[in-house]
Structure formats: C-alpha cells, structure tokens
C-alpha cells in the first residue's frame, strides 16, 4: 500500500516499456516537440564479420532504464551539477524501418528520421546498428551548415571501395570526408589491426583527418587532446563502442584490445560539450548477444545520458 506522501506510480526501471531513459515515445515524426530525439537504427548488414548490432538499439534502451528512477535530473557531486533536469525534453522516435538485404533503402529510412529530428529543432541521437548507419546520418546534415566530425573508434573506417561496397561499416568516415559541409575529422582511438589499408590513412590525412591512437591520446592527456579539435566548431560525434577496451565492452562485433576506459572517453566528451556546439550524435556497434553480463549496453546508455547532460548543461539548461 502506498504511503501518504507517494503519488502516481513508482515506475521502477524494470517496469513498463523500454523507451530510451523511459522518456516519452513519439512515433509521429511530424509531431516532434523535443530538445533531443532518440532514433534507433537497427541495421547490421554492413558488417564484415560478426553481426548482431541490429539488436543494439533494443539493448541500449533496456539498459538505459537503469538510470531512470524518476528523480528530477541526475546530480553529480564531483561537478556539483544536476544534469538533465526536467526542462530538457527527450523523446524516443522509435526505430527507422529496416529492409532486409537493402542497404540503400534502410539507410534512406534512417536519413529520413534524422532529417525529421533536425526539422523539429531537436538534437538527433542515433543508436546503431553497425557503423554504416553513420552514412545516412551525415547525409541528413547537407542543409545544416558546416560540421566537424569527432570519431571515437578503434577503426579508421576510411575504405573507399572494396569489391563494389561503398556503404558498409568500413566506409563511413570516407563517405563523410567527401561531403563539402564536413570541414574535417578528428579520429581518436584508432589502433592495432584496423579496417583500412595504409593508403587509406594517407587519404584520410589528405582529406583533413587528424588521427590519434589510444596511446597517443593518453600521452597527450585530455586537455591537449581537446586542443586538437577546432575551437568553436559545430561537432558531430560518432562513437563506436569498440573504442572502449573489450574488458569493459565485449558486446561488439569487432573487439580490439587496448581501448579506452570509461573516464578517458567521458572526460573527452565533457570537454567537447563545454567548448563546442554538439549538433548530432550516433553510438554504434553495440551487439548485446556477445555480452551476457549486459555491461556493454549499460556502458553505452551511461555514456549517452552523461553526454546529453553535458551538452544541455553547456546550453544553460536548469
């Protein structure tokens, strides 16, 4: 029986439908009224080895309910800030429709979702899916002005074409660099056996990329790393979960040892949010079935919620 000071439902994390952060579901993309619009992109036909990222959006949404106890915002005692107050309107758009075996059709549906979020004045946050879903995300910004891309990833993803494939998960940063409104890329975490041959690295640098490995990032430190990102730029963040060490994020199709730990990425994201305008976000390559503990999906949800908190605190949300 409820106490006298309780009202409404307790709505614990394990109760109800798993929208992102238990925020409202808005399936009508022409009626979005929000500061943040979450879009699932459950497409993994661009993978070259282990599939399974099609279940990423569902897994990250479920994990995100862990952080949704109904409190007014999230108080961080180290920063002495309450992040994501009720004034920040977050809605879940659901998923873009995926057409099996049809990359272009599926990508077009993802692009339509991102464009709908942008039309509504919302910050688009896309949960993949493999990294190829970044291609339609970036296409959707063709009328938004110049953007700079911050990629946090184990792999360069700068293949031009391989056996006729131009829109797989090894191609997105090459496709992005080709866009006239993409002014450059900062590619952080790139390491070890990668997805791009030597000439791809030369092409990336020639097309405006600054490539930084995990070891180089650690040697630089967060502040020097942030100094490598253009000041005052409009930043699109693409975060591949395999940027993290598989010791904390095993649930991904192409794990690569030697990756970042949690605070290394979080502090970079916080610094970027404080110094630049974040205009779009995608988080990709979460494949929940490879991690029976669920820690990878929890990590993904936690990173996204914290990043959104940083972004809107920097915008003055109270």
From TrEMBL:
It comes from the Bacteria. Binds 2 manganese ions per subunit. The keyword Manganese applies. The lineage of its organism: Bacteria, Pseudomonadati, Pseudomonadota, Alphaproteobacteria, Rhodobacterales. Its cofactor is Mn(2+). Keywords: Hydrolase, Manganese, Metal-binding. Mn(2+) binds at residues 131, 153, 155, 157, 240, 242. GO terms for molecular function: agmatinase activity; metal ion binding. Gene3D superfamilies: Ureohydrolase domain (3.40.800.10). PROSITE patterns: ARGINASE_1, ARGINASE_2. GO terms for biological process: putrescine biosynthetic process from arginine, via agmatine. It holds the Pfam family Arginase. InterPro entries: Agmatinase-rel, Ureohydrolase, Ureohydrolase_dom_sf, Ureohydrolase_Mn_BS. Belongs to the arginase family. Agmatinase subfamily. This is Arginase.
